Amino acid sequence: MLHIGQDISIFSKDIVAIIDYSTIQESESNQEFLKTAEEEGFLMSLTDKPHSFVVTIDRIYLSPISAITLAKRVGEFPK
Predict the structure, then answer these.
(1) Where are the extended beta strands (E) located within 11-50?
(2) Cα–Cα distance between 25 and 11 in angstroms, integer?
(3) Cβ neighbours around 54 below 10 Å, total
(4) CA-to-CA distance for 34 and 73, rounded, in angstroms?
(5) Is the pTM of this model over 0.85?
(6) Contacts of 64 (CB under 8 A, 6+ apart)
(7) Please, where are the H alpha helices in the chain?
(8) Which residues pair with 18 in a beta bridge?
(9) What are the distances in angstroms from CA 58 to CA 1, 16, 37, 40, 72?
(10) Which residues, at least 6 apart from 31, have a Cβ–Cβ distance to it below 8 Å?
């Protein structure tokens, strides 16, 4: 289980991607991806100031924890 913020933990095997939130400003594709996820009810914000977004098989989480920290944590656990 990977803790991604607040009281939310997810199975590492369910993670599709962990992406640095700053790429939103650089990537129109990422902006559209998150906008669509929000419109369709798949986006869950865990903070007002996200540092990363975590894509899982059924949801996208905006996390207050950096993508680097989350990636390191995933590496510590078997899938």
Answers:
(1) 15-20, 43-45
(2) 28
(3) 27
(4) 24
(5) yes
(6) 5, 46, 47, 49, 50, 51
(7) 23-26, 28-39, 67-76
(8) 54
(9) 16, 10, 10, 12, 22
(10) 24
Is a pLDDT exceeding 90 seen at residue 53? Answer: yes
Cα distance between residue 9 and residue 36, in whole Å: 24
**Given a cut of 70, is residue 78 above it in pLDDT?**
no
50: burial class by Cβ within 10 Å (0-12, 13-18, 19+)?
buried
Alpha carbon 13 to chain centroid, angstroms: 14
In eight-state DSSP terms, residue 67 is: H
**Per-residue pLDDT tens over the stretch 10-45:** 998 999 999 999 988 888 998 999 999 999 999 999
CA nearest to 52, candidates 16, 22, 11, 14 = 22
H or E stretch covering 5: strand 2-5
> Which residues share a beta bridge with 15?
56
